[in-house]
Amino acid sequence: MTPAPAPPAVATLPCVLDVEASGFGRASYPIEVGYVLPDGRARCTLIRPAAGWTHWDERAAGVHGIARETLERCGRPAAEVAAMLNVDLAGRTVYCDGWAHDYAWLGALFEEAGVPPSFRLETVARLLDEATLARLGDTRRGVVGELGLQRHRASSDARALQLALGRLGAVPAD
Q: Which CATH number does 8-167 carry?
């Protein structure tokens, strides 16, 4: 039996990714990655800090609410996370709203893993015109409220962004 095709509204949603990090500066590194595929399936994982990843900013921890001890205990090694991303996101253009930071943090992850990414990271600004992009923040806050999201975590943030983009009519090129 062939599965039923996804409804058009779902089929046109962009693949969206979000990264939480140890801080905001050059020495920061990824601690959690979450993404939502166009069909709505989501995945999220904590990342165990590599030996050289020592920077920790308590202000960032106050935002994401993840303790370094939790990462040490429950996080996956960088190579495992990079492999998971490469399988799930292979060949896709993946969108994010903090491209400069997310690109650097994913770069650190893949460098630590010793493999290149199999997907392309792109800014959501490529999906929206300037006037619509200006409405993205309010639209996302509305989605967060409707979903009742309490925590600032990668997969929740990715889902809220994806749904906001869908409401604004953002259609990915691929």
A: 3.30.420.10
